[in-house]
Design brief:
alpha/beta, 6-stranded mixed β-sheet, 4-stranded parallel β-sheet, 9 helices, binds 4'-deoxy-4'-aminopyridoxal-5'-phosphate, Cystathionine beta-synthase
């Protein structure tokens, strides 16, 4: 019989699929890696598994332990899922502005969710970082993975995401295009792919960061933007600036328009940061020829953004262009 022994065994080994419509006029092959097919619905399942297994090995997480992390998003889902399967409780700390629905997802997995106060500075003990530090200490068996600094996060991508892309492209990948939030994906995947391709005739894989316009990674000042999960306003430990060769600053309007096109034209209902990655991949592709193979990583599903990116009124209200009707549905003209 062919079955997985636990849902945790289904993390990773996500497929690549070729883009066919949004790539019109482009000679290079553009492939996307579908991370929403992980059991928790995002790329973050990979780091959750690695960080928890590392903590078990190091004796930091023991039977009866509790995983405590300040997150409301994809990392929370991954940690809740892995913690539960391995017999640990999990507690997540969020801020009030986080949508009720996101907290409900974590609670649905059996996690506890603590909502901190608004309007406190990041270094206050009442910030969501502060509360998580305190809870990790006070709760017996508490363990805080800290995805921004935990070396297991980039290591999980070095050990899984990178090798999967290399094997599936049979070593033909020429460009990797990924977003960077905590930096784990670009640092781990990029490092692996550059290392394994270092001596080939084609030259090493070029690593491109698809960054929200305004984020510091692409030279911005850290001003706010709407796309979620990518970009930063401060430098974080797991972002290794020596890995990327290039950075493309992509506006919210470009990211969201591309996310919508991926849904209507490619059958891929993916989130805003996936739109950022593909928008950047197409810019990278402009100067390339038929032998080039670009792989863009699509971190999560569009299901979590139905009330925003995929809602025409929300798009118009936030100034992301006009909605125009097309033969395949609606499109945002930016
Ligand atoms: N996209 C989404 C939707 C995410 O949640 C994240 C994680 N913050 C990323 C992209 C970026 O991944 P990383 O943290 O590995 O840089």
């Amino acid at each position: 019989m062919k079955y997985a022994h636990s849902v945790v065994d289904l993390i990773g080994r996500t497929p690549l699929v070729k883009l066919n419509r949004v790539t019109e006029g482009i000679e290079a092959t553009v492939l996307v890696k579908l991370e929403y097919l992980n059991p928790g619905g995002s790329i973050k399942d990979r780091i959750a598994l690695k960080m928890i297994e590392d903590a078990e090995k190091a004796g930091e997480l023991k039977p009866g332990g509790v995983v405590v992390e300040p997150t409301s998003g994809n990392t929370g889902v991954g940690l809740a899922l892995v913690a539960q399967q391995k017999g640990y409780r999990s507690v997540f700390i969020t801020v009030p502005k986080v949508a009720q629905e996101k907290r409900d997802v974590l609670r649905a997995y059996g996690a506890d969710v603590v909502v901190g106060p608004t309007g406190v500075s990041a270094d206050s003990p009442l910030s969501y970082y502060g509360i998580s530090d305190q809870l990790a200490e006070e709760i017996e068996g508490g363990y805080k993975p800290d995805q921004f600094s935990n070396p297991g996060a980039p290591a999980s991508h070095y050990e899984t995401t990178g090798p999967e892309i290399w094997e599936d492209t049979e070593g033909k990948i020429t460009h990797l295009v990924v977003g960077a939030g905590t930096g784990g994906t670009v640092s781990g995947t990029g490092h692996y792919l550059k290392e394994v391709s270092a001596d080939r005739e084609l030259g090493p894989v070029r690593v491109v960061v698809a960054d929200p316009d305004g984020s510091i990674y692409s030279g911005g000042e850290g001003r706010p933007y709407f796309v979620e999960g990518v970009g930063e306003d401060v430098w974080v430990k797991n972002y290794d600036p020596s890995v990327p060769d290039d950075h493309y600053a992509i506006t919210d309007a470009e990211s969201f328009a591309m996310a919508r096109r991926l849904a209507t034209e490619e059958g891929l209902l993916v989130g805003g940061s996936s739109g950022t990655a593909v928008a950047a991949a197409l810019k990278v592709a402009e100067g390339l020829g038929p032998d080039d193979v670009i792989v863009a990583v699509l971190p999560d599903s569009g299901r979590g953004y139905l009330a925003k990116i995929f809602n025409d009124q929300w798009m118009i209200d936030h100034g992301f262009g006009e909605v125009v009707s097309t033969s395949t549905g609606t499109e945002i003209s930016v």
